[in-house]
Amino acid sequence: MEKAVFLDRDGVINEDVGYAKSIADIKILPDVPQALIKIKEQGYKIFVITNQAVISRGYATKDDIKKLHEQMNALIVQQGGVPIDGFYLCPHHPNADIVQYRKVCECRKPAHGLILQAAKENLIDLKNSWMLGDRVSDIVAGKNAGCKTILVRSPQSEHVTVSGITFDKNTKADYEVNTLLEAVDIMSL
Prior knowledge:
- This protein is an alpha/beta fold.
- It has one domain: 3-Layer(aba) Sandwich (Rossmann fold), CATH 3.40.50.1000.
- The chain contains 6 helices and 8 strands.
- It has helices at about 30-40, 55, 60-80, 115-120, 135-145, 180-185, and strands at about 5, 45-50, 85-90, 130-135, 150, 160, 165, 175.
- It has a 6-stranded parallel β-sheet, sandwiched between helices.
- Helix 1 (about 30-40) runs parallel beside helix 6.
């Protein structure tokens, strides 16, 4: 089995602008291309695990976001990084504007269904893998999947209520850092 790093998207890989609908909304954070190279050098596969309410709100389709992720990978490579191995997204939201996406599901973080799906499809050993995110919901998903966790601090990190779910303010990641590049140093220990 292989090991993996599961990354939240907005706030970890790119600036969090709210509802990113196209590549014009994406600005890759400065240290991300270098960090992705180092993650690969350590033998990890890289997957993005992301809630995409932009779909449930009707601002973009699944195909739009799939295309956006392909363009993000190209942009990361253009900036000197390596491509992400896979993108896993949840289009659902309990209060979705689009009825077909209005539900409580097992894939929307803090649920860990997307991590389990990625692990099953790619033969990933979750105990030797990491979940990195900038919100407590990312950390809860990672812990519930059996991964080690790192909080990448952002303005969103202090919010204990995410999508109407209030988390224990004492929920802590195994480690906290300011950038993805700092997280890579921890993963090499």
